[in-house]
Amino acid sequence: MSQALEQHFDDTIAHDQRIEPRDWMPDAYRATMIRQIAQHAHSEIIGMQPEGNWLTRAPSLRRKAILLAKVQDEAGHGLYLYSATETLGADRTDLTNRLIEGRQKYSSIFNYPTLTFADVGVIGWLVDGAAICNQVPLCRSSYGPYARAMIRICKEESFHQRQGYELLLTMMRGTPAQRDMVQDATDRWWWPSLMMFGPPDTDSPNTAQSMAWRIKRHTNDELRQRFVDMTVPQAQALGVTLPDPQLRWNAERGHHDFGQPDWAEFKRVIGGEGPCNMQRIAQRRRAHDEGAWVREAAVAYATKQAARDLDNGAAT
Amino acid sequence: MTEPGDERSREERSRRERSERPVASAPPAGAHESTGAAIKQNWPLFEVFVRSKRGLNHVHVGSLHAADADMALHHARDLYTRRNEGVSIWVVRSDAITASSPDEKDPFFAPSGDKVYRHPTFYEIPDGVPHI
After folding, report:
1. How far apart are CA A168 and CA A174, in angstroms?
2. What is the pTM for the complete model shown?
């Protein structure tokens, strides 16, 4: 019986069809999907913080409105993804607890600080650019609800990247001090952006299984290469230098050669020792705790209204 | 006269129950409802359907948690229509949905599988006959 189920699951994957919530699936597939989607959701939610830091200090009403819309989108992306995990039987409260207790991870990129307003632009350009590279193939993930969430998210990420790049173009047309800010932010965010694709393929033990299940469509190194190739001409158009002395065009390969990020730093940041890990989790926990009375009040109100409707129904 | 499908649908029902796993339509909140700590309970799950423009059906877009249906509508507006994606929204508690078994080859759909004569292409009409 279970062999037949497994065969049907394998056939569905092999025909590049989607697995849907009530389908039978191997426990390991379910667990992997929950972990991956939850980590992705956590990243979106924690990702509100670095940029949220600049909401009250945006230099103009226009930039403030844009930034607010962007941070709202990150919240929305987190919610689409939590919704997808729930189709697999995960419980949202449990996932939130796992995040604030440090039992589940989020993208290492959000553990770096946003020191100037140029960081807002560079996050849009590089961090969201890297996210798009990662996420476009996920629109064809074998798990239906995840793939559908990713389609919505990718449509919205395009706005994120373009607003960031436009912000930087504006600063580059400004004073020398503003141009220096853009270069400084680029220098600080370049390597962490490359780390967003995960460890090198030689050090990524789960890749093979994820590719077999069509959860993942390309290896970490393939996506990293694609991102570098996309970004180099954008940096030239912007007038900034990418901080990698080994970066150069390789005509033979038809790709750019580039240096390796500091993988020891990557492991430290993932392990909780990045510049902002504690702060990010503490803030998420505070928001959750301080919002408890709102959640409780809403339930009390709904309960009261439901009782009242019941009374009114009985009276008529 | 008994329905020939009776036996099958009973089978289908019991198999569905056996294969039931926690899914979107399982209310994560429901379990807490009888604990007396009503105030601590989680908000129930709602499924959201959006009509993207006049003339089209409402389409399922995802789910969200809310304390009641009114709040679910407002959250659905904020979450699923930030860019004019809809002109009308339905929300329904996930635990109010009854769903068929997911397997497409399921006997549940068998009654329509062998009735090719329901399709217009089943009938051969000479080439010269117009407007048919």
Report:
1. 10
2. 0.87
